[in-house]
Amino acid sequence: LSPEENPAGLLGHQTLNFHSLLADRTRMSDALGYAYFKAINIPSPRTSYLDLTLAIEGILPASHLGLYLMVEKPDGQWLDSHWGQCGGALLKPVTMKLFDELEGGWEAYEAVYDPKTPLSEAQQAHLMSTIRWFNQPDQEGFQAGWETYFDLESVARFFAAQVLLSNYDGILFNGQNFLMTMQPQTHRIAFAPWDMDHSRGEFPLTGTLEQRTRASITHPWIGDQFFVERLFQSEVFLRLYNQALRDQLQFPFTLEHISQQMDRLAPLIRPVLQHEPAPTTAQFDQAQASQAQTSVSGSETKGTEHPSHQIRVFIQQRRESVLAQLEG
Question: What is the pTM of this model?
Fold first, then answer.
């Protein structure tokens, strides 16, 4: 296809990600999550909704699968387009002991940090140097070294967003569903989002919705989180983080902004839901409400009648909690 025939920008991409939305009654959490990070200048995949039908010649007749979110594949091309230059690196760690020191050379770290782009020897060396520094006991050197190894302004924006969104299906809890980047030339480390469908306090495996809505901004992690605990001991990070919280409470973490996005998406999504294999329009409509509601009847993914997650209600209540915490 020529660029004119391919306005969605798919030309040159070899992999497309289709995210199922059946578990998300709002049908918006993933798309809105990526959009949030893009609004605060964090590398974030582009998204587009699809009404998907699948056919396999000679095997499967055309079968309507319903609504999916197409998510841009995070790779070197994606990262280069964000920075406007080549030479950066992308990794996808899965660990609750991020930057813990391991025995051996780079081969000991490769499986944990799962590079999605080839790492140069200089990038490998920077990462291992970061890990050695991170584990050193010199408190003065620890406070002074952060900006050598990390793009700390970006890291502060990223963590402020994770905390405001109460996103516990990720780096604040289970050590997954995030990306790690290394800048061209400096190799400084930062982070980017992945898998945002349980953001805005929706992740059901960590306490109650009220607890997630009122979660601490000074101790936002759950369990033993080696990296996050030490990060929140950094004086320069804390200054940047608290400013990032205040900045994002001005924009984009506002009810007005999120309502504009939801009002734009809802008319596009609702007609598709009406002819999905398992209609869930009642749960979708409940998720759009601005006032807290109880349950609705109808088919549910888990076979229960618990309420849909209400994003607008969460935003209102989370803002109140964070503002109160900032004021002491």
Answer: 0.91
